[in-house]
Design brief:
elongated, SLC26A/SulP_fam, about 675 residues, single chain, mainly alpha
Length: about 675
């Protein structure tokens, strides 16, 4: 629909022209678009640099402070413990004590299982929940995050390390490479924080993270079938096809062996123990795993039903370990084929600095693996920290968090730890248990220390099946089906990124899934930058507001005027597309006008409010559009260009070419100014 216009101009209107351009009405009451004063190039560069890397103005607290105060603020900035520690009291300690003991009961069995995911001895999982939490408690700014090994990073690290070194044939080299990767994971995290490059992790979109985590959770759960079913020969690959092939091959082999031995049992009276030992699947192992997985899932269900019972799912893994270990010990089920943890060394973390590769063949591999593992660990930890900070209404500094996590892993690599980060399951328990500060991490670390010093021999008869059940129970929440459904409803392209990462992980490998996630995230950014949205605007009846006619069907278009909004900055990457899309809008509108016998299009108004910036390619595109329109006797008009845009148009002399009387503050002003010429045509 088109807005009917008066057949004559207002008597006070004085048409003006710019050379051979169409006349535009001037009004003493109309505000002109201001050209900002010319900025000093150095000041302009410094402003851009500050907004890019120091947008939060981290030094604002240091202004006008004496040197002693500045020193204390600097110390608190690096070590937040000196800030919140001043107001620490017994009430806060009570909450931290309960939370620390609760997450310790959860982390100990999880750490043993996660170390196996990384193809490391179980003790290294416990080591990684002793030193890193102590470092983070001093340097981290989150009150709720619980530090330690996590399933996804453990699987990723184990997969990448196994691709370089076989842990079975070269265990020493594998361990050294793990420490090297942990060291460089920490260096990567600390460097990103120190150089204020934390925004780089935001390039991994939420949808890609949801898909990656879901795929990794399924992969981890499938990997646990080895311990859950008691299979001895299992594939080293992580994709779902190889894992299921390994599982069903073992089942098929087991059936054949069972039939053979049953025949021997009937004829030669072979013992049932021999039959059981020959089977690829172990029924006692399956019974243990299935029973305690049911117990763990039930306890989690109870905890979700009542927040007051949060401690039940928190202590359930430790209770499962204690009961299953005792059961295996008294029945000697390990002699019936039930696989157990076996020996677990006592003592605190030994130094591992001398084991890190700082030169040689494995240095480059350690750096590559460390960078990948560090980025994934960083993404998970920062997301968890921000989530719980928002729930408690306090702020965390993402760059400081990265430095804290980086230093934590660097120190950890020198004390026999592998990559540690924030654990969502433990952090959630920490939050619900009433933690007040990072002291809960210290409490957890002390409990782990006591375990390392005195209790590790008790884990000798812990069955691998219970560790598999604990890990499966822990990774199930990572499969966020509701989030995937919401992503599908909201943004189909985001859903493609989500599913690409998901299927990449389960059908290829963790690193391929991660690569797909990052690639699709970048592809989405490039698509949005190179193909920005444009819209035709119409007037909302009885207002001076112009909006997208597709969003507001009641909006009416002005005869002879086409108003288009560009919803993006105009750069070299999209300038040609923007020009061509505007010309296509114009061509389509001219065809409609001609078919309806309406006045021809005489004015093309470009609404520039969303155009935050423009480069030389964008200016050249506007120049080409302007010249093309001039040949067709159509006047180009700009509405509300921002300060950065109008400044560049002024410096490039395009504003002079167009004419400042063709640049307006609002679309309504521009349409009103088109009135005299349109009136003459009626």
């Amino acid at each position: 629909t088109y807005l009917a216009m008066s057949g004559r101009a207002h008597p006070d209107v004085n048409p003006v022209t710019d050379g051979g351009d169409l006349p535009i009405k001037s009004s003493p009451h109309r505000h002109k678009v201001g050209v900002p004063p010319k900025q000093n190039m150095f000041h302009d560069f410094m402003y851009t640099f500050k907004e890019t890397f120091f947008h939060d103005d981290p030094l604002r607290h240091f202004k006008d402070q004496p040197k002693s105060k500045k020193f204390m603020l600097g110390l608190q900035s690096v070590f937040p413990v000196f800030d919140w520690g001043r107001n620490y009291n017994l009430k806060k300690f009570r909450g931290d004590l309960i939370a620390g003991l609760t997450i310790a009961s959860l982390c100990i069995p999880q750490d043993i299982g996660y170390a196996k995911l990384a193809n490391l001895d179980p003790k290294y999982g416990l080591y990684s929940s002793f030193v890193p939490p102590l470092v983070y408690a001093c340097m981290g700014s989150s009150r709720d995050i619980a530090i330690g090994p996590v399933a996804v990073v453990s699987l990723l690290l184990g997969t990448l390390l196994r691709a370089e070194v076989d842990p079975n044939t070269n265990p020493d080299e594998y361990l050294r490479l793990a420490f090297t990767a942990t060291f460089f994971a920490g260096v990567t995290e600390a460097a990103l924080g120190f150089f204020r490059l934390g925004f780089l992790i935001d390039f991994l979109s939420h949808a890609a993270v949801v898909g990656f985590m879901g795929g990794a959770a399924i992969t981890i759960a499938l990997q646990q079938l080895k311990g859950f079913l008691g299979i001895k020969k299992f594939t080293k690959k992580t994709d779902i096809i190889a894992v299921l092939d390994s599982v069903f091959s073992a089942a098929h082999h087991g059936v054949r062996i069972l039939l053979l031995f049953l025949d021997s049992y009937i004829v030669k009276n072979v013992s049932l123990n021999h039959i059981n030992m020959a089977m690829q699947w172990n029924w006692q192992t399956i019974l243990i795993g299935a029973s305690f997985l049911t117990f763990l899932l039930t306890s989690k269900f109870i905890g979700k039903k009542s927040k007051k019972l949060f401690w039940i799912p928190a202590v359930a893994p430790l209770i499962s370990v204690i009961i299953s270990t005792f059961f295996v010990y008294i029945t000697r089920a390990d002699k019936q084929g039930v696989q157990i943890v076996k020996h677990l060394d006592k003592g605190i973390n030994p130094s591992s600095f001398h084991q890190i590769y700082f030169s040689g063949h494995y240095l480059a591999k350690g750096i590559r693996i460390g960078v990948v593992a560090g980025m994934v660990a960083l993404t998970e930890a920062v997301a968890i920290g921000r989530t719980f900070a928002a729930m408690k209404d306090y702020q965390i500094d993402g760059n400081k968090e990265m430095v804290a996590l980086g230093v934590m892993n660097v120190v950890g690599s020198m004390s026999s730890c592998y990559v540690a980060t924030g654990s969502f399951s433990r952090s959630a328990v920490n939050f619900m248990a009433g933690c007040q500060t990072a002291v809960s991490n210290i409490i957890m670390s002390i409990v782990v220390l006591l375990t390392l010093l005195f209790l590790t021999p008790l884990f000798k008869y812990t069955p691998n099946a219970i560790l598999a059940a604990i890990i499966i129970n822990a990774v199930i929440p990572l499969i966020d089906i509701q989030a995937a459904i919401l992503i599908f409803k909201v943004d189909k392209l985001d859903f493609v990124a989500c599913m690409g990462a998901f299927f990449g992980v389960i059908f290829a490998s963790v690193e391929i899934g991660l690569l797909i996630a990052v690639s699709i995230s970048f592809a989405k950014i490039l698509l949005q930058v190179t193909r920005p949205r444009t819209a035709v605007l119409g007037n909302i009846p009885r207002t001076s507001v112009y909006r997208n006619i597709q969003q507001y069907p009641e909006a009416t278009m002005v005869p002879g005027v086409l108003t288009i909004r560009v919803d993006s900055a105009i750069y070299f990457s999209n300038s040609n597309y923007v020009r061509e899309r505007i010309q296509r809008w114009l061509l389509e509108e001219e065809e409609k006008v001609k078919a309806a016998s309406l006045p021809r299009i005489q004015f093309l108004i470009i609404e520039m409010s969303p155009v935050t910036d423009i480069d030389t390619s964008g200016i050249h595109a506007l120049e080409d559009l302007y010249k093309s329109l001039q040949k067709r006797d159509i006047q180009l008009i700009l509405a509300n260009p921002g300060p950065l845009v109008i400044g560049k148009l002024h410096l490039s002399h395009f504003a002079d070419m167009l004419g400042y009387d063709h640049i307006f503050l609002t679309v309504a002003d521009a349409v009103e100014a088109c009135g005299p010429k349109l009136s003459d045509e009626v």
